[in-house]
Design a protein that fits this description.
heterodimer, A: 184 residues, alpha/beta, two-stranded parallel sheet, 8 strands, globular, B: 184 residues, 32% helix, flat
């Protein structure tokens, strides 16, 4: 059981395993770079939130570009992405992509094989928690999960803490992008 | 009854909002009658969905007129119980879940008109990615989008397919119900 209280408090009892809390951006960057086939699942909240005037969607697209991570655009995020000049690799919704990721024989969004690291960013917290729970229980053999949202998600493998100030979150994301660029 | 409604009646149920067990069970009741249901994001807590993977799944049905199993290749309905992340995603999904294999060309054109219009309004500016799966013949294309859809279908190498006359699942699996029972 984790000692950190998550933002979303329904269906969060994790049994004996909970998310590893990571506050260090280089460590996060290393985990992403070690993954052979990561996947970035982007949610609609990225078009609504911004940090210091810059949309979170732009941070997410920077992470995808520097880390060479394929993107799955859920809900209505494709429109905003195309506006910013990026074509997503797939447009499955959150429940659809999780349904596909559960299957170890799925070919992945680029048909190169199923993914070994799935990064969630910008999905509403209750749905994201449920999606992470599904992958934790049914896909633990072949993939790990990670979140970039500013809340702690106990069902993920790796999660950020509850950032009280957006400045810290912004600094983390910028540091992560910088680390991914260095490791290119 | 459920077989008739699922294959021939273009209906879709919606259960949205802060979910209660009563609302979730009403959605399940719709499923028992053969009506696909679109649920809100809170419904993910109840952990009961009936999803498909349109590229991989088996879309064969029995054509009761010809008395043979045909592969329509058409995911209709795509899911039977689905959770939509946002209302913007829900709108075109409702139109898509109303498509059935035995639609007349006029009926299919109306449904595709709704699907494309809602997609353009809420998701992105272009055409839906899976549109080619629902266009059987040229007559199915709505008049308003004829030019655009024809160009898109030609680009991807779409081929027309035969519509299914009297689709049913009776006869595709061992059952005590004879095939004649579904022919009126």
């Amino acid at each position: 059981m984790s000692a950190v209280i998550p933002f979303h408090r329904v269906n969060v009892l994790t049994g004996i395993k909970s998310a590893k809390l990571i506050e260090d951006a280089p460590q996060y960057g290393n985990l992403i770079q070690k993954a052979k086939r990561p996947l970035l699942v982007l949610g609609p909240l990225l078009s609504e939130w911004s940090l210091d005037g810059k949309l979170l969607m732009e941070y997410a697209l920077d992470i995808a570009k520097t880390g060479n991570i394929p993107i799955c655009a859920t809900a209505q995020t494709k429109g905003k992405m195309v506006e910013l000049g990026v074509e997503p690799d797939s447009v499955y919704d959150a429940v659809e992509i999780v349904n596909a990721l559960k299957d170890p024989d799925w070919k992945g969004v680029r048909k190169e094989g199923n993914h070994d690291l799935v990064i969630f960013f910008g999905v509403r917290s209750d749905l994201e928690e449920q999606c992470l729970s599904v992958l934790k229980h049914f896909a633990f053999n072949h993939l790990k999960t990670m979140t970039l949202d500013k809340y702690y998600f106990p069902h993920a493998n790796y999660s950020l803490p509850n950032f009280k100030k957006d400045v810290k979150w912004q600094s983390f994301l910028e540091s992560l992008i910088h680390n991914l660029k260095k490791g290119e | 009854m459920a077989d008739y409604v699922l294959n021939r009646v273009g209906a879709c149920g919606i259960a949205w909002g802060a979910m209660s067990q009563k609302a979730a069970s009403i959605g399940t009741g719709c499923n028992r009658l053969g009506v696909p249901v679109l649920l809100g994001p809170h419904s993910s807590k109840y952990r009961r969905l009936y999803l498909s993977r349109k590229e991989e799944d088996d879309w064969r049905v029995m054509d009761a007129r010809k008395r043979e199993i045909v592969d329509s290749g058409e995911p209709s309905p795509e899911h039977i119980a689905y959770v939509a992340e946002t209302k913007e995603k829900a709108m075109p999904m409702i139109a898509k879940l109303c498509i059935r294999k035995n639609d007349t060309p006029q009926g299919r054109a109306i449904k595709l008109n709704h699907y494309i219009s809602l997609y353009k309004k809420y998701i992105a500016k272009g055409l839906p990615e899976d549109l080619h799966l629902f266009v059987r013949r040229d007559a199915d294309i709505p008049l308003v989008y004829k030019k655009e859809v024809r160009a898109h279908l030609q680009e991807i190498g779409w081929q027309p397919k035969e519509p299914v006359g009297l689709p049913t699942f009776i006869g595709t699996y061992p059952s005590k119900v004879p095939l004649d029972a579904v022919i009126h």
